[in-house]
Amino acid sequence: MNNDAETQPQLLDHDICTHIFTASAAMVGVCLTVIGILRAVVSLRHTDVLGDDLLAINAMAYLAACLMSYWALRTRSLGRNHRLERIADVLFLAALTLTAVNAAFITWAVSAFH
Q1: How many domains does the chain have?
Q2: Which residues constitute the domain of residue 55?
Q3: C-alpha to C-alpha distance for 31 and 58, rounded to whole angstroms
Q4: Where are the bilayer-spanning segments (predicted)?
Q5: pLDDT, tens digit, for every residue of 3-13?
């Protein structure tokens, strides 16, 4: 029974890493989709906003989180796994924060054109 208690945190960490991997990969797609939509709106209005550049940076941050979590899933070293999971977690949370900042910026930038 003691063995189960020792493996449970490892399984939980592995589970978190899997969620970071899938969510960050999906968010790269979301960023690319929004960049395309934003570029279409910008070209119709003959203006330019910084939002598409911010979204490209955001996509790169999600990609970095995705790659770190993938590396953590593939590594066999428990110490390296935990370090990579922490890095992936921090990158994902930073990218998520940048997503909220981007949403606010794009909202204000687009509403300023009206």
Answers
A1: 1
A2: 18-103
A3: 7
A4: 20-42, 54-72, 92-113
A5: 554 555 555 56
